[in-house]
Design brief:
Strand order of the largest sheet: 6-7-8-3-9-10
CATH superfamily of the largest domain: ABC transporter type 1, transmembrane domain
Number of strands: 10
Helix content: 55-70%
Radius of gyration: 34 Å
Strand content: 5-15%
Shape: elongated
Number of domains: 2
Distance between the termini: 37 Å
CATH class of the largest domain: Mainly Alpha
Largest sheet: 6 strands, mixed
Number of helices: 19
């Protein structure tokens, strides 16, 4: 669920993540503050030196002023390095933390929330949006704190010459460092969020095009697809151009205001000097001090438009972190084994689309229940509810006589194995993909599971055997081979409750027969719910039920 958050709300939420690294942040601010003071006082010491040349004296002898300026210059370089090192250490630590938090959030949200989510947009959030937050952590938090402290200190320093000059300095800092960024941010409106949205849509389109490249070539749709990609890219570039023009206008306004305040300070100091209310030395130091001290607030002013983009990225990340799972993790309940399952008068819908309507089904232990029905009748949804991927709207799903909401999630995953029509394989070896189901499995256990799934001989025929890479999304294997590996993974998991959704849809009759024989042998110690369009697949079932329009028929 997307939430509209103000820039301040996003900033406050992101800043809270810095709490574990508060010490480094304080160190970065202190070094940055000291560095900017050194930079300003190099110029101020130069004014004192000029006053010595004019015979007006100064707070230190001329050689001491030159030595102090040299020390300040050296210190400025070292402090700047230290500040940036701390800021980037914080940024990269937090980026790693954010990726960990986002992945953990996605694990909690899956699969219900992710089924309807655009994968390309999600990839954009995990990669580019999180990367963009580095700007906030490394180049926003610390500079903002430095600008606040530095401006307050310089206003006091300039005000020591005359209160009027201190007031002018304070007004200058507030205008350039606060009012300009706020005005720019307000003028930008939702431009940053719109840019991130368009970038996410483009990523999704590119990913979709890559996945469907064979179909694009087959039907000669390459030109149309390329034209659409160019149109979207041009739209994104145009939007980015508008944001850059806004940033350029902001910079022009900032520089103009700085010039205006410099002139105001110059004329005010001159007027005070001419009226004998301020000595020439004080007027000169105050004027030069203001002219040399805009660096921190200018950095804030330049962040105005860019922060909209950053806050938009932060908002998208926070949407994931703060989203409530459809099915929350269940912990702390008494451990339970599997002794059968029941579906009692269950009604379920995806949004307004009714899928199951008062469906009831008894699944005794050590039985094979076949489920048949037309596409869209609710067969796959029934299995997902038994896995607790979705929350039942009405009615109740029971595992071992207990409401499924009262079963520990870890126990539920241990007692259930779920095989879908589309088996996902990770970009790794066949062995690694199989061990996903049982990390400590022996070679003998893996081979036994693969033989049951009629895939062992195929694996042995490969040049690297079980160490053969499967490629991205299992692209080096056929649909039937992937499906058999999915079945092998389920057999290896050795769960007492086996949920199979069209497990032989991509298999020939020979391999189907081998797998059905294995399922028949396994059913003695397992409970199986077998969903299939094929009547031949359901011949091993003890009972076959038909689902039509969300009801048993």
């Amino acid at each position: 669920m997307k939430k509209e958050r103000s820039g301040f709300a996003v900033m406050a939420r992101l800043i809270r993540l810095v709490k574990p690294l508060t010490g480094y942040m304080v160190l970065a601010v202190l070094m940055g503050l000291a560095g900017h003071l050194c930079a300003s006082f190099i110029t101020i010491f130069g004014v004192f030196g000029l006053l010595w040349v004019l015979g007006l004296g100064g707070p230190l002898p001329l050689p001491a002023l030159f030595a102090a300026a040299a020390v300040m210059a050296l210190a400025r370089g070292l402090l700047r390095y230290g500040e940036q090192a701390c800021n980037h250490f914080i940024a990269f630590k937090l980026l790693a933390l954010l990726r960990d938090k986002v992945f953990a959030a996605l694990r909690r949200l899956a699969p219900a929330k992710l089924e309807g989510r655009d994968k390309g947009d999600l990839i954009s959030v995990i990669t580019s949006d999180i990367e963009l937050l580095e700007v906030f952590y490394a180049h926003t938090i610390s500079p903002a704190a430095i600008a606040l402290l530095f401006s307050a200190g310089m206003a006091v320093f300039i005000g020591a010459a005359h209160p009027l000059l201190g007031g002018i300095a304070l007004a200058a800092y507030l205008t350039v460092g606060v009012l300009v960024p706020l005005a720019t941010s307000k003028a930008a409106g939702g431009a940053g969020m719109e840019f991130r949205r368009r970038a996410g849509e483009l990523s999704a389109f590119v990913l979709d095009s890559l996945r469907g490249l064979s179909e694009i070539l087959q039907y000669g749709a390459g030109a149309r697809r390329l034209a659409e990609m160019e149109r979207r890219t041009a739209g994104l570039a145009e939007h980015e151009g508008r944001m850059k023009r806004t940033a350029a206008f902001n910079a022009a306004v900032t520089n103009t205001l700085i010039l205006v305040f410099d002139l105001v300070m110059l004329f005010a100091a001159a007027a005070l000097c001419m009226s004998c209310r301020l000595e020439f030395a004080g007027a000169a130091v105050a004027t030069v001090a203001l002219m040399s001290s805009f660096g921190p607030v200018v950095a804030l002013a330049n962040l105005g438009a860019g922060l909209q983009n950053t806050f938009a990225a932060g908002n998208r990340v926070l949407d994931i972190l703060e989203e409530t799972p459809v099915t929350a993790e269940v912990e702390g309940r008494p451990a339970t084994g599997f002794f059968g399952a029941k579906v009692k008068n269950v009604t379920f819908s995806y949004g307004s689309e009714l899928i199951l309507d008062g469906l009831s089904l008894d699944i005794p232990q050590h039985s094979v229940i076949g489920v048949v029905g037309r596409s869209g009748s609710g067969k796959s949804t029934l299995l997902k509810l038994l896995m607790r991927f979705w929350q039942v709207r009405q009615g109740q799903v029971e595992i071992s006589g207990r409401p499924i909401d009262g079963v520990n999630t870890a126990d539920l995953r241990a007692m259930e194995a779920y095989v879908t029509q589309e088996t996902h394989l990770f970009r790794d070896s066949i062995l690694a993909n199989l061990r996903l189901a049982k990390p400590g499995a022996t070679d003998a256990e893996i081979e036994a599971a693969c033989k049951k799934a009629a895939v062992h001989d195929f694996i042995q025929s490969l040049p690297q055997g079980y160490d053969t890479p499967v490629g991205e999304l299992g692209e080096t294997l056929s649909g039937g081979e992937r499906q058999r590996l999915g079945l092998a993974r389920a057999f290896l998991h050795d769960a007492p409750f086996l949920l199979l959704d069209e497990p032989t849809s991509n298999l020939d009759s020979l391999n189907e027969a081998v797998i059905l024989r294995s399922l028949g042998q396994e059913s003695a110690g397992r409970t199986v719910v077998l969903v299939s369009h094929r009547r031949s697949t359901l011949r091993i079932a003890d009972k076959v039920v038909s689902v039509e329009r969300g009801r048993l028929s």
